[in-house]
## 1
Amino acid sequence: QVQLVESGGGLVQPGGSLTLSCAASGSIFRINVMAWYRQSPGKERELVATILIGGTINYADSVKGRFTISRDNAKKTVFLQMGSLKPEDTAVYYCNAGVLHATESGVRYLEVWGQGTLVTVSS
């Protein structure tokens, strides 16, 4: 009923830039928080950045100064602008959202995950 769709992944050279987007769809009353995670083979899923409905932003130390998270509340979309990319940024990037989902019986709070988009940083 609520889904997130990521886009923008691909192959990029070290030092390059890439922007990811994630659009939420479905019967949504409010998206309280949107976030980006990433996961590389053999590693735990890592929180990259979060943005709250009021605009509060947090970044993982590993991406501070290089990545920028933003959201368009009207379009229910979150973006991740990635710059100065390094090979260690290579991962599947997942969008995550805490959503107030409007249903026939009322409003339910859901945590929703996107399908992931692969970012490969390599020369």
## 2
Amino acid sequence: QVQLVESGGGLVQPGGSLRLSCAASGTFFSIYDMGWYRQAPGKQRESVAVISTNGNTNYADSVKGRFTISRDNAKNTVDVQMNSLKAEDTAVYFCYADLVSSLTYLRRNYWGQGTQVTVSS
């Protein structure tokens, strides 16, 4: 049983900032990569940012220089600081964790329920 819960979404004006947080809980072994995807209406889910256990990061070209991903391995959390937000950043944002469940012993990605980010004036 694994759960990921996002928080921090909301409505913000263009140029504003938001910080999204995600906490993993349940019974699992060590987490590998953690990250954030987003999905806008009518579009495919796309990777936004990924961070490895040792802190290596990858960002979508569209968010480089504006978003910063971080994690706390001791707390099993991952955050993304989003600055200089644009209307095209509007989407539902999902966090994920690549981990092995203690129940199934299978490694796969687990997903949060999503949090809405709306950038509008």
